[in-house]
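User: Can you write out an input/output pair for a complex, sequences first and structure second?

Assistant: Here is one pair. Inputs:
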Amino acid sequence: MELPVAMKVLPVGDCIWEIPASEKPGMLVPARLYASQTLLAGMDAGVFEQVTNVACLPGIVRAALCMPDGHWGYGFPIGGVAAFRADAGVISPGGIGFDINCGMRVLRTTLTEAEVRPRLRALVDALFAAVPTGVGAHGFLHLEPPAFREVMVEGARWVVRHGYGRPEDLEATEGGGCLAGADPAAVSDRALRRGMDQLGTLGSGNHYLEIQVVPADGIHAPDVARAFGITSPGQVLVMLHCGSRGFGHQVGTDYLRRFDQAMRTYGITVRDRELACAPFRSPEGQAYFGAMNAAANTAFANRQLITHRVREVMARVFDRPAEALGLEVIYDVCHNTAKVERHVVDGESVELVVHRKGATRAFGPGAPDVPVAYRHLGQPVIIGGSMETGSALLVGTAHAMAETFGSTAHGAGRTMSRAQAKRRVWGETLVREMRERGIVVRAASPAGVAEEAGFAYKDLAAVVDTVHRLDISRRVVSLRPIGNIKG
Amino acid sequence: MAVADCALAIEGESLDDLFETAARALAELMVDPATVDQSVRRAIALDAPSLDLLLYDWLAELIFLKDSEQLVVTRADVDVEGASPCRLRARCVGGVIDRGRTALRADPKAVTFHQFTLEPRGAGWRARVVIDI
Protein backbone atom coordinates (compact mmCIF):
# COMPACT_ATOMS: atom_id res chain seq x y z
CA MET A 1 0.00 0.00 0.00
CA GLU A 2 1.32 3.42 -1.02
CA LEU A 3 1.21 5.98 1.81
CA PRO A 4 2.15 9.65 1.56
CA VAL A 5 4.81 9.40 4.29
CA ALA A 6 8.21 7.79 4.68
CA MET A 7 7.45 6.51 8.20
CA LYS A 8 6.87 2.87 9.06
CA VAL A 9 3.13 2.29 9.37
CA LEU A 10 2.77 -1.28 10.59
CA PRO A 11 -0.39 -3.37 10.73
CA VAL A 12 -0.88 -4.54 14.33
CA GLY A 13 -4.45 -5.80 14.12
CA ASP A 14 -7.54 -5.76 11.95
CA CYS A 15 -7.91 -2.09 10.92
CA ILE A 16 -5.20 -1.04 13.42
CA TRP A 17 -1.94 0.52 12.24
CA GLU A 18 0.96 1.63 14.38
CA ILE A 19 3.78 4.09 13.84
CA PRO A 20 6.52 3.06 16.29
CA ALA A 21 7.90 5.66 18.69
CA SER A 22 11.28 5.23 17.00
CA GLU A 23 9.99 6.84 13.79
CA LYS A 24 10.34 10.46 14.93
CA PRO A 25 12.69 12.02 17.48
CA GLY A 26 10.80 13.01 20.61
CA MET A 27 7.94 10.53 20.32
CA LEU A 28 7.14 9.27 23.82
CA VAL A 29 4.61 6.68 22.69
CA PRO A 30 3.64 5.12 19.37
CA ALA A 31 0.89 6.53 17.17
CA ARG A 32 -2.08 4.36 16.30
CA LEU A 33 -4.39 4.83 13.36
CA TYR A 34 -7.71 3.02 13.21
CA ALA A 35 -8.69 2.57 9.59
CA SER A 36 -9.49 0.07 6.88
CA GLN A 37 -6.79 -0.24 4.24
CA THR A 38 -8.82 1.99 1.92
CA LEU A 39 -9.39 4.69 4.54
CA LEU A 40 -5.74 4.62 5.57
CA ALA A 41 -4.60 4.96 1.95
CA GLY A 42 -6.88 8.00 1.61
CA MET A 43 -5.46 9.83 4.63
CA ASP A 44 -3.38 12.89 3.80
CA ALA A 45 0.26 13.21 4.82
CA GLY A 46 -0.66 15.71 7.50
CA VAL A 47 -2.51 13.07 9.53
CA PHE A 48 0.66 11.00 9.94
CA GLU A 49 2.78 14.05 10.77
CA GLN A 50 0.26 15.41 13.25
CA VAL A 51 -0.52 12.19 15.09
CA THR A 52 3.21 11.57 15.56
CA ASN A 53 3.68 15.16 16.74
CA VAL A 54 0.97 14.57 19.35
CA ALA A 55 2.89 11.47 20.48
CA CYS A 56 5.69 13.85 21.54
CA LEU A 57 3.61 15.85 24.03
CA PRO A 58 4.54 15.55 27.72
CA GLY A 59 2.60 13.07 29.82
CA ILE A 60 0.92 11.22 26.96
CA VAL A 61 0.06 7.62 27.76
CA ARG A 62 -0.25 4.46 25.70
CA ALA A 63 -0.43 6.00 22.20
CA ALA A 64 -1.59 9.00 20.19
CA LEU A 65 -4.71 7.84 18.35
CA CYS A 66 -6.45 8.72 15.13
CA MET A 67 -9.96 7.54 14.31
CA PRO A 68 -11.04 6.28 10.84
CA ASP A 69 -12.44 9.68 9.84
CA GLY A 70 -9.08 11.31 10.54
CA HIS A 71 -7.91 14.19 8.42
CA TRP A 72 -5.44 17.00 8.63
CA GLY A 73 -6.39 19.55 11.29
CA TYR A 74 -4.53 22.22 13.23
CA GLY A 75 -1.97 20.71 15.61
CA PHE A 76 -3.92 17.53 16.29
CA PRO A 77 -5.53 15.71 13.39
CA ILE A 78 -9.30 15.85 13.27
CA GLY A 79 -10.28 12.44 14.61
CA GLY A 80 -7.47 12.68 17.14
CA VAL A 81 -7.62 11.19 20.63
CA ALA A 82 -4.84 11.60 23.18
CA ALA A 83 -4.78 10.98 26.92
CA PHE A 84 -2.34 12.71 29.26
CA ARG A 85 -1.69 11.96 32.90
CA ALA A 86 -3.58 14.54 34.96
CA ASP A 87 -0.69 14.72 37.44
CA ALA A 88 2.19 14.97 34.97
CA GLY A 89 0.77 15.75 31.56
CA VAL A 90 -0.41 18.72 29.54
CA ILE A 91 -3.61 20.19 28.24
CA SER A 92 -3.54 21.60 24.71
CA PRO A 93 -6.23 23.80 23.12
CA GLY A 94 -5.12 22.31 19.78
CA GLY A 95 -6.34 18.94 21.02
CA ILE A 96 -9.84 20.28 21.48
CA GLY A 97 -10.22 22.69 18.58
CA PHE A 98 -11.47 26.25 18.42
CA ASP A 99 -15.08 25.11 18.37
CA ILE A 100 -15.15 23.82 21.93
CA ASN A 101 -17.84 21.19 22.48
CA CYS A 102 -18.84 21.13 18.89
CA GLY A 103 -21.23 18.24 19.01
CA MET A 104 -24.28 16.41 17.74
CA ARG A 105 -27.81 16.11 19.06
CA VAL A 106 -30.56 13.93 17.66
CA LEU A 107 -34.29 14.02 18.40
CA ARG A 108 -36.81 11.32 17.55
CA THR A 109 -40.29 12.17 16.33
CA THR A 110 -43.54 10.27 16.00
CA LEU A 111 -43.76 11.49 12.39
CA THR A 112 -43.17 9.45 9.27
CA GLU A 113 -41.65 10.57 6.00
CA ALA A 114 -45.08 10.27 4.37
CA GLU A 115 -46.47 12.81 6.87
CA VAL A 116 -43.53 15.20 6.56
CA ARG A 117 -43.02 15.20 2.76
CA PRO A 118 -46.07 17.37 1.90
CA ARG A 119 -44.89 20.05 4.37
CA LEU A 120 -41.15 19.60 3.98
CA ARG A 121 -40.51 22.84 2.09
CA ALA A 122 -42.54 24.81 4.64
CA LEU A 123 -40.76 23.06 7.49
CA VAL A 124 -37.28 23.78 6.15
CA ASP A 125 -38.19 27.42 5.44
CA ALA A 126 -39.63 27.85 8.94
CA LEU A 127 -36.60 26.26 10.58
CA PHE A 128 -34.29 28.43 8.49
CA ALA A 129 -36.18 31.51 9.71
CA ALA A 130 -36.17 30.41 13.36
CA VAL A 131 -32.58 29.21 13.70
CA PRO A 132 -30.17 31.95 12.59
CA THR A 133 -27.27 30.78 10.45
CA GLY A 134 -24.16 32.19 8.85
CA VAL A 135 -21.92 35.20 9.43
CA GLY A 136 -23.17 37.86 11.84
CA ALA A 137 -26.13 35.85 13.14
CA HIS A 138 -27.44 36.46 16.64
CA GLY A 139 -29.99 34.49 18.60
CA PHE A 140 -33.40 35.36 20.04
CA LEU A 141 -32.14 35.32 23.62
CA HIS A 142 -30.40 38.53 24.66
CA LEU A 143 -28.51 38.05 27.89
CA GLU A 144 -26.63 40.50 30.05
CA PRO A 145 -23.15 39.43 31.23
CA PRO A 146 -24.28 38.15 34.66
CA ALA A 147 -26.85 35.84 33.06
CA PHE A 148 -24.37 34.66 30.42
CA ARG A 149 -21.93 33.80 33.22
CA GLU A 150 -24.67 31.65 34.76
CA VAL A 151 -24.98 29.86 31.41
CA MET A 152 -21.21 29.24 31.45
CA VAL A 153 -21.60 27.41 34.75
CA GLU A 154 -24.95 25.69 34.27
CA GLY A 155 -25.01 24.97 30.54
CA ALA A 156 -28.20 23.38 29.23
CA ARG A 157 -29.58 23.28 32.79
CA TRP A 158 -29.87 27.09 32.75
CA VAL A 159 -31.76 26.94 29.47
CA VAL A 160 -34.20 24.29 30.70
CA ARG A 161 -34.62 26.13 34.00
CA HIS A 162 -35.73 29.18 32.03
CA GLY A 163 -38.39 27.29 30.14
CA TYR A 164 -36.61 26.36 26.93
CA GLY A 165 -36.71 22.60 27.21
CA ARG A 166 -37.83 19.55 29.11
CA PRO A 167 -36.05 18.22 32.21
CA GLU A 168 -35.56 14.88 30.47
CA ASP A 169 -33.50 16.63 27.77
CA LEU A 170 -30.73 16.97 30.34
CA GLU A 171 -30.68 13.28 31.21
CA ALA A 172 -30.15 12.60 27.49
CA THR A 173 -27.18 14.96 27.20
CA GLU A 174 -23.53 14.04 27.80
CA GLY A 175 -22.60 15.16 31.29
CA GLY A 176 -26.20 16.18 31.91
CA GLY A 177 -25.56 19.22 29.69
CA CYS A 178 -23.33 20.77 32.34
CA LEU A 179 -19.63 20.04 32.76
CA ALA A 180 -18.20 20.63 36.21
CA GLY A 181 -15.27 22.98 36.68
CA ALA A 182 -16.42 25.86 34.49
CA ASP A 183 -14.72 29.04 35.60
CA PRO A 184 -16.17 32.31 34.26
CA ALA A 185 -13.26 34.20 35.85
CA ALA A 186 -10.92 32.42 33.42
CA VAL A 187 -12.87 33.75 30.45
CA SER A 188 -11.91 37.03 28.82
CA ASP A 189 -14.30 39.90 28.48
CA ARG A 190 -13.74 39.63 24.74
CA ALA A 191 -15.00 36.05 24.67
CA LEU A 192 -18.08 37.10 26.55
CA ARG A 193 -18.74 40.04 24.22
CA ARG A 194 -18.17 37.87 21.18
CA GLY A 195 -20.55 35.10 22.16
CA MET A 196 -23.18 36.65 24.38
CA ASP A 197 -25.74 37.23 21.62
CA GLN A 198 -25.10 34.02 19.70
CA LEU A 199 -26.95 31.45 21.79
CA GLY A 200 -29.44 29.66 19.58
CA THR A 201 -27.47 30.14 16.36
CA LEU A 202 -26.12 27.42 14.12
CA GLY A 203 -22.95 28.98 12.70
CA SER A 204 -21.59 28.03 9.31
CA GLY A 205 -19.00 25.67 7.82
CA ASN A 206 -20.05 22.08 8.36
CA HIS A 207 -22.72 22.89 10.95
CA TYR A 208 -26.27 21.94 10.11
CA LEU A 209 -29.79 21.25 11.25
CA GLU A 210 -31.22 18.31 9.38
CA ILE A 211 -34.50 16.44 8.95
CA GLN A 212 -33.64 12.77 8.53
CA VAL A 213 -35.44 9.52 7.83
CA VAL A 214 -34.72 5.93 8.79
CA PRO A 215 -34.29 4.13 5.43
CA ALA A 216 -35.95 0.78 4.67
CA ASP A 217 -32.77 -1.12 5.48
CA GLY A 218 -31.59 1.38 8.10
CA ILE A 219 -32.14 -0.48 11.37
CA HIS A 220 -29.14 -2.70 12.10
CA ALA A 221 -29.64 -3.45 15.80
CA PRO A 222 -33.41 -3.48 16.47
CA ASP A 223 -33.16 -3.92 20.25
CA VAL A 224 -30.81 -0.96 20.71
CA ALA A 225 -32.76 1.10 18.18
CA ARG A 226 -35.93 0.46 20.21
CA ALA A 227 -34.17 1.73 23.33
CA PHE A 228 -33.34 4.87 21.30
CA GLY A 229 -37.07 5.15 20.46
CA ILE A 230 -36.54 4.22 16.83
CA THR A 231 -39.07 1.59 15.88
CA SER A 232 -39.55 1.46 12.12
CA PRO A 233 -38.23 2.58 8.74
CA GLY A 234 -39.73 5.85 7.59
CA GLN A 235 -39.53 7.40 11.07
CA VAL A 236 -38.39 11.02 11.00
CA LEU A 237 -35.57 12.33 13.21
CA VAL A 238 -34.04 15.78 13.64
CA MET A 239 -30.27 16.09 13.96
CA LEU A 240 -28.20 19.14 14.71
CA HIS A 241 -24.49 19.79 14.57
CA CYS A 242 -23.06 22.92 16.14
CA GLY A 243 -20.90 24.15 19.00
CA SER A 244 -20.00 27.05 21.23
CA ARG A 245 -19.96 29.68 18.47
CA GLY A 246 -17.88 32.83 18.84
CA PHE A 247 -17.58 32.40 22.59
CA GLY A 248 -15.73 29.10 22.31
CA HIS A 249 -13.74 30.32 19.32
CA GLN A 250 -12.49 33.26 21.36
CA VAL A 251 -11.62 31.08 24.36
CA GLY A 252 -9.56 28.91 21.98
CA THR A 253 -7.92 31.97 20.43
CA ASP A 254 -7.11 33.55 23.80
CA TYR A 255 -5.49 30.44 25.22
CA LEU A 256 -3.65 29.37 22.08
CA ARG A 257 -2.04 32.81 22.16
CA ARG A 258 -1.38 32.60 25.90
CA PHE A 259 0.06 29.06 25.80
CA ASP A 260 2.28 30.02 22.84
CA GLN A 261 4.11 32.26 25.31
CA ALA A 262 3.59 30.21 28.49
CA MET A 263 5.42 27.17 27.12
CA ARG A 264 8.70 29.03 27.64
CA THR A 265 7.98 29.21 31.36
CA TYR A 266 7.63 25.46 31.54
CA GLY A 267 10.44 24.62 29.12
CA ILE A 268 8.07 22.85 26.74
CA THR A 269 8.83 22.77 23.05
CA VAL A 270 6.42 21.44 20.45
CA ARG A 271 6.80 20.47 16.82
CA ASP A 272 3.88 22.63 15.71
CA ARG A 273 2.78 25.94 17.24
CA GLU A 274 -0.83 24.76 17.13
CA LEU A 275 0.17 22.18 19.75
CA ALA A 276 0.84 24.93 22.30
CA CYS A 277 0.15 23.45 25.72
CA ALA A 278 0.69 23.87 29.44
CA PRO A 279 0.91 21.41 32.32
CA PHE A 280 -2.63 20.46 33.29
CA ARG A 281 -2.00 21.26 36.95
CA SER A 282 -0.33 24.64 36.21
CA PRO A 283 -2.23 27.93 36.70
CA GLU A 284 -2.43 28.32 32.91
CA GLY A 285 -3.61 24.75 32.40
CA GLN A 286 -6.29 25.04 35.05
CA ALA A 287 -7.42 28.42 33.72
CA TYR A 288 -7.85 26.97 30.24
CA PHE A 289 -9.68 23.93 31.61
CA GLY A 290 -12.08 26.25 33.49
CA ALA A 291 -12.63 28.42 30.42
CA MET A 292 -12.98 25.38 28.15
CA ASN A 293 -15.67 23.89 30.41
CA ALA A 294 -17.46 27.26 30.40
CA ALA A 295 -17.42 27.21 26.60
CA ALA A 296 -18.54 23.58 26.52
CA ASN A 297 -21.50 24.49 28.70
CA THR A 298 -22.54 27.31 26.38
CA ALA A 299 -22.44 24.81 23.51
CA PHE A 300 -24.86 22.55 25.40
CA ALA A 301 -27.00 25.64 26.02
CA ASN A 302 -26.84 26.51 22.33
CA ARG A 303 -28.02 23.08 21.21
CA GLN A 304 -30.76 23.16 23.87
CA LEU A 305 -32.06 26.53 22.63
CA ILE A 306 -32.05 25.30 19.04
CA THR A 307 -33.98 22.23 20.22
CA HIS A 308 -36.56 24.57 21.72
CA ARG A 309 -36.86 26.45 18.43
CA VAL A 310 -37.23 23.19 16.51
CA ARG A 311 -40.08 22.15 18.80
CA GLU A 312 -41.83 25.52 18.37
CA VAL A 313 -41.47 25.41 14.59
CA MET A 314 -42.58 21.80 14.18
CA ALA A 315 -45.60 22.32 16.43
CA ARG A 316 -46.61 25.24 14.21
CA VAL A 317 -45.97 23.53 10.89
CA PHE A 318 -47.75 20.31 11.88
CA ASP A 319 -50.38 22.11 13.97
CA ARG A 320 -49.91 19.80 16.93
CA PRO A 321 -48.27 20.28 20.34
CA ALA A 322 -44.57 19.47 20.29
CA GLU A 323 -45.17 16.70 22.84
CA ALA A 324 -47.58 15.01 20.43
CA LEU A 325 -44.81 14.98 17.81
CA GLY A 326 -42.39 13.31 20.22
CA LEU A 327 -39.32 15.47 19.60
CA GLU A 328 -37.55 13.78 22.48
CA VAL A 329 -33.78 14.03 22.68
CA ILE A 330 -32.20 10.63 22.02
CA TYR A 331 -28.77 11.94 22.94
CA ASP A 332 -26.43 14.92 22.74
CA VAL A 333 -22.74 14.17 22.45
CA CYS A 334 -19.60 16.32 22.38
CA HIS A 335 -16.84 15.73 19.86
CA ASN A 336 -14.40 18.54 20.74
CA THR A 337 -13.47 18.39 24.42
CA ALA A 338 -10.92 17.43 27.01
CA LYS A 339 -12.33 15.54 29.99
CA VAL A 340 -10.83 14.17 33.16
CA GLU A 341 -11.57 10.45 33.18
CA ARG A 342 -10.17 7.33 34.80
CA HIS A 343 -8.88 4.63 32.49
CA VAL A 344 -6.76 1.55 32.99
CA VAL A 345 -3.19 2.03 31.77
CA ASP A 346 -0.69 -0.81 32.22
CA GLY A 347 -3.08 -2.49 34.63
CA GLU A 348 -3.48 0.58 36.83
CA SER A 349 -6.46 2.95 37.05
CA VAL A 350 -5.09 6.39 36.20
CA GLU A 351 -6.65 9.85 36.10
CA LEU A 352 -6.24 11.16 32.58
CA VAL A 353 -7.07 14.27 30.62
CA VAL A 354 -8.60 12.72 27.51
CA HIS A 355 -8.53 15.06 24.52
CA ARG A 356 -11.04 14.25 21.77
CA LYS A 357 -10.83 16.47 18.72
CA GLY A 358 -13.34 15.41 16.14
CA ALA A 359 -13.81 12.20 18.10
CA THR A 360 -16.83 11.00 20.03
CA ARG A 361 -16.94 9.51 23.47
CA ALA A 362 -18.21 5.93 23.15
CA PHE A 363 -18.52 4.60 26.69
CA GLY A 364 -19.62 1.01 26.97
CA PRO A 365 -22.32 -0.68 29.04
CA GLY A 366 -22.30 0.10 32.74
CA ALA A 367 -20.42 3.41 32.55
CA PRO A 368 -21.90 5.73 35.20
CA ASP A 369 -22.03 8.83 32.95
CA VAL A 370 -24.38 7.08 30.51
CA PRO A 371 -28.12 7.82 30.94
CA VAL A 372 -29.95 5.19 32.96
CA ALA A 373 -32.13 4.28 29.98
CA TYR A 374 -29.06 3.29 27.97
CA ARG A 375 -26.65 2.20 30.67
CA HIS A 376 -27.14 -1.53 30.03
CA LEU A 377 -26.45 -0.96 26.32
CA GLY A 378 -23.72 1.67 26.21
CA GLN A 379 -23.67 5.34 25.33
CA PRO A 380 -25.40 6.46 22.12
CA VAL A 381 -22.93 7.70 19.51
CA ILE A 382 -23.90 10.10 16.73
CA ILE A 383 -21.77 10.15 13.60
CA GLY A 384 -22.73 12.97 11.29
CA GLY A 385 -22.17 12.57 7.59
CA SER A 386 -22.25 15.03 4.74
CA MET A 387 -25.49 16.82 3.93
CA GLU A 388 -25.98 14.55 0.91
CA THR A 389 -25.18 11.12 2.21
CA GLY A 390 -26.64 10.70 5.67
CA SER A 391 -25.60 9.98 9.23
CA ALA A 392 -25.51 7.09 11.67
CA LEU A 393 -26.36 6.22 15.24
CA LEU A 394 -24.15 3.73 17.03
CA VAL A 395 -23.59 2.61 20.58
CA GLY A 396 -20.42 2.57 22.70
CA THR A 397 -18.67 -0.65 23.69
CA ALA A 398 -16.60 -2.13 26.49
CA HIS A 399 -13.86 -2.72 23.93
CA ALA A 400 -13.65 1.02 23.20
CA MET A 401 -12.86 1.58 26.88
CA ALA A 402 -9.85 -0.71 26.57
CA GLU A 403 -8.73 0.24 23.07
CA THR A 404 -9.41 3.96 22.52
CA PHE A 405 -10.08 5.49 25.95
CA GLY A 406 -13.77 5.03 25.18
CA SER A 407 -13.69 6.93 21.87
CA THR A 408 -14.82 6.51 18.30
CA ALA A 409 -15.22 8.51 15.07
CA HIS A 410 -17.34 11.65 14.78
CA GLY A 411 -18.13 12.11 11.12
CA ALA A 412 -17.22 11.26 7.59
CA GLY A 413 -14.05 13.35 7.52
CA ARG A 414 -13.10 15.65 4.68
CA THR A 415 -11.14 14.48 1.66
CA MET A 416 -10.79 17.79 -0.15
CA SER A 417 -10.48 21.45 0.71
CA ARG A 418 -13.34 23.91 0.62
CA ALA A 419 -11.73 25.65 -2.34
CA GLN A 420 -11.48 22.37 -4.30
CA ALA A 421 -15.12 21.57 -3.59
CA LYS A 422 -16.23 25.01 -4.78
CA ARG A 423 -14.28 24.54 -8.00
CA ARG A 424 -16.18 21.31 -8.69
CA VAL A 425 -19.74 22.51 -8.19
CA TRP A 426 -21.77 25.71 -7.86
CA GLY A 427 -23.78 25.94 -4.65
CA GLU A 428 -26.98 26.76 -6.55
CA THR A 429 -26.47 23.76 -8.84
CA LEU A 430 -25.96 21.43 -5.90
CA VAL A 431 -29.08 22.74 -4.14
CA ARG A 432 -31.11 22.05 -7.30
CA GLU A 433 -29.63 18.58 -7.75
CA MET A 434 -30.32 17.71 -4.13
CA ARG A 435 -33.91 18.95 -4.46
CA GLU A 436 -34.33 16.61 -7.44
CA ARG A 437 -33.13 13.78 -5.18
CA GLY A 438 -35.66 14.73 -2.52
CA ILE A 439 -33.44 16.77 -0.19
CA VAL A 440 -34.56 20.35 0.48
CA VAL A 441 -31.69 22.71 1.42
CA ARG A 442 -31.73 26.28 2.75
CA ALA A 443 -28.41 28.01 3.34
CA ALA A 444 -27.16 31.47 4.25
CA SER A 445 -24.33 31.15 1.72
CA PRO A 446 -24.58 29.23 -1.59
CA ALA A 447 -20.79 28.83 -1.62
CA GLY A 448 -21.05 27.23 1.81
CA VAL A 449 -23.31 24.54 0.32
CA ALA A 450 -20.74 23.70 -2.36
CA GLU A 451 -18.03 23.42 0.29
CA GLU A 452 -20.07 20.76 2.07
CA ALA A 453 -20.89 18.62 -1.00
CA GLY A 454 -20.94 14.89 -0.40
CA PHE A 455 -17.93 14.32 -2.66
CA ALA A 456 -15.79 16.47 -0.34
CA TYR A 457 -16.10 13.80 2.37
CA LYS A 458 -15.04 10.21 2.94
CA ASP A 459 -17.60 7.46 2.51
CA LEU A 460 -19.56 7.52 5.78
CA ALA A 461 -20.49 3.84 5.42
CA ALA A 462 -16.78 2.97 5.26
CA VAL A 463 -16.12 4.89 8.48
CA VAL A 464 -19.06 3.26 10.26
CA ASP A 465 -18.11 -0.20 8.97
CA THR A 466 -14.60 0.31 10.31
CA VAL A 467 -15.56 1.40 13.82
CA HIS A 468 -18.05 -1.48 13.91
CA ARG A 469 -15.38 -3.96 12.81
CA LEU A 470 -13.00 -2.54 15.39
CA ASP A 471 -15.78 -2.88 18.00
CA ILE A 472 -15.11 0.63 19.30
CA SER A 473 -18.80 1.32 18.67
CA ARG A 474 -21.58 -0.74 17.10
CA ARG A 475 -23.85 0.19 14.24
CA VAL A 476 -27.48 0.75 15.29
CA VAL A 477 -29.31 2.90 12.73
CA SER A 478 -28.46 4.57 9.41
CA LEU A 479 -30.19 7.83 8.53
CA ARG A 480 -30.66 9.72 5.28
CA PRO A 481 -31.36 13.45 4.99
CA ILE A 482 -34.51 14.94 3.46
CA GLY A 483 -34.13 18.53 4.67
CA ASN A 484 -31.06 20.57 5.58
CA ILE A 485 -30.46 24.01 7.03
CA LYS A 486 -26.92 25.35 6.72
CA GLY A 487 -24.89 28.40 7.52
CA MET B 1 -2.52 22.31 4.09
CA ALA B 2 -5.40 21.26 6.30
CA VAL B 3 -8.41 20.36 4.21
CA ALA B 4 -11.06 22.33 6.11
CA ASP B 5 -9.15 25.57 5.94
CA CYS B 6 -8.87 28.83 4.14
CA ALA B 7 -5.26 29.90 3.63
CA LEU B 8 -4.41 33.53 2.96
CA ALA B 9 -1.17 34.17 1.08
CA ILE B 10 -0.48 37.86 1.49
CA GLU B 11 2.23 40.06 0.02
CA GLY B 12 2.90 43.71 0.75
CA GLU B 13 5.36 46.36 -0.34
CA SER B 14 5.69 47.21 3.34
CA LEU B 15 4.39 45.93 6.65
CA ASP B 16 1.68 48.58 6.55
CA ASP B 17 0.63 47.38 3.11
CA LEU B 18 0.66 43.72 4.19
CA PHE B 19 -1.52 44.36 7.24
CA GLU B 20 -3.94 46.43 5.14
CA THR B 21 -4.13 43.71 2.50
CA ALA B 22 -4.67 41.04 5.16
CA ALA B 23 -7.70 42.97 6.45
CA ARG B 24 -9.16 43.23 2.95
CA ALA B 25 -8.58 39.49 2.34
CA LEU B 26 -10.36 38.60 5.57
CA ALA B 27 -13.31 40.82 4.64
CA GLU B 28 -13.50 39.10 1.22
CA LEU B 29 -13.55 35.75 2.97
CA MET B 30 -16.52 36.71 5.15
CA VAL B 31 -18.74 38.73 2.80
CA ASP B 32 -18.90 40.39 -0.58
CA PRO B 33 -17.47 43.78 0.51
CA ALA B 34 -19.52 45.58 -2.15
CA THR B 35 -22.65 44.61 -0.20
CA VAL B 36 -21.44 46.22 3.03
CA ASP B 37 -21.90 49.92 3.51
CA GLN B 38 -18.97 52.05 4.58
CA SER B 39 -20.66 53.89 7.41
CA VAL B 40 -18.53 52.89 10.39
CA ARG B 41 -15.15 54.38 11.28
CA ARG B 42 -13.07 52.66 13.91
CA ALA B 43 -9.59 53.21 15.36
CA ILE B 44 -7.72 50.12 16.54
CA ALA B 45 -4.46 50.05 18.51
CA LEU B 46 -2.60 46.84 19.31
CA ASP B 47 0.74 45.89 20.88
CA ALA B 48 2.46 42.51 20.64
CA PRO B 49 5.88 41.09 21.53
CA SER B 50 6.69 40.19 17.92
CA LEU B 51 5.57 41.11 14.42
CA ASP B 52 4.00 37.76 13.66
CA LEU B 53 1.96 37.88 16.87
CA LEU B 54 0.91 41.40 15.92
CA LEU B 55 -0.45 40.05 12.63
CA TYR B 56 -2.18 37.24 14.52
CA ASP B 57 -3.75 39.72 16.93
CA TRP B 58 -4.79 42.07 14.12
CA LEU B 59 -6.74 39.39 12.26
CA ALA B 60 -8.12 37.99 15.52
CA GLU B 61 -9.38 41.50 16.35
CA LEU B 62 -11.19 41.75 13.01
CA ILE B 63 -12.83 38.34 13.58
CA PHE B 64 -13.83 39.48 17.06
CA LEU B 65 -15.57 42.57 15.63
CA LYS B 66 -17.45 40.38 13.15
CA ASP B 67 -19.09 38.46 16.03
CA SER B 68 -19.29 41.09 18.78
CA GLU B 69 -20.66 43.93 16.63
CA GLN B 70 -21.42 42.23 13.28
CA LEU B 71 -18.91 44.74 11.92
CA VAL B 72 -16.88 43.91 8.82
CA VAL B 73 -13.82 46.09 8.27
CA THR B 74 -13.46 46.42 4.51
CA ARG B 75 -10.60 48.95 4.42
CA ALA B 76 -7.91 49.91 6.88
CA ASP B 77 -5.13 52.42 6.90
CA VAL B 78 -2.47 50.79 9.06
CA ASP B 79 0.77 52.01 10.63
CA VAL B 80 3.03 49.25 11.97
CA GLU B 81 6.06 49.88 14.15
CA GLY B 82 8.43 46.94 14.18
CA ALA B 83 10.39 47.82 17.31
CA SER B 84 9.75 45.70 20.40
CA PRO B 85 7.01 45.77 21.55
CA CYS B 86 5.58 45.94 18.05
CA ARG B 87 2.73 48.38 17.64
CA LEU B 88 -0.15 48.81 15.24
CA ARG B 89 -2.38 51.84 14.80
CA ALA B 90 -5.22 51.42 12.32
CA ARG B 91 -7.98 53.64 11.04
CA CYS B 92 -10.67 51.30 9.80
CA VAL B 93 -13.71 51.71 7.58
CA GLY B 94 -16.49 49.18 7.31
CA GLY B 95 -20.11 48.40 7.95
CA VAL B 96 -22.45 46.29 9.98
CA ILE B 97 -23.73 43.12 8.31
CA ASP B 98 -27.23 43.73 6.97
CA ARG B 99 -28.73 40.27 6.55
CA GLY B 100 -31.15 41.62 3.94
CA ARG B 101 -28.39 43.09 1.79
CA THR B 102 -25.00 41.65 2.67
CA ALA B 103 -23.89 38.65 0.60
CA LEU B 104 -22.53 36.26 3.24
CA ARG B 105 -19.61 33.93 2.68
CA ALA B 106 -17.64 32.03 5.33
CA ASP B 107 -17.85 32.60 9.09
CA PRO B 108 -14.26 32.46 10.42
CA LYS B 109 -13.77 30.93 13.84
CA ALA B 110 -10.17 31.83 14.48
CA VAL B 111 -6.71 32.64 13.21
CA THR B 112 -4.48 29.57 13.51
CA PHE B 113 -0.73 29.09 13.93
CA HIS B 114 -0.92 26.33 11.32
CA GLN B 115 1.95 26.97 8.88
CA PHE B 116 1.81 30.60 10.02
CA THR B 117 4.59 32.75 8.59
CA LEU B 118 5.46 36.41 8.27
CA GLU B 119 8.79 37.19 6.64
CA PRO B 120 10.61 39.79 4.55
CA ARG B 121 10.60 39.13 0.84
CA GLY B 122 12.79 41.26 -1.42
CA ALA B 123 11.93 44.86 -0.67
CA GLY B 124 8.61 43.88 0.89
CA TRP B 125 6.94 41.29 3.12
CA ARG B 126 4.88 38.17 2.75
CA ALA B 127 2.72 36.14 5.09
CA ARG B 128 0.73 32.95 5.13
CA VAL B 129 -2.18 32.68 7.52
CA VAL B 130 -4.64 29.81 7.79
CA ILE B 131 -8.10 30.77 9.01
CA ASP B 132 -10.24 28.13 10.68
CA ILE B 133 -13.74 28.28 9.27
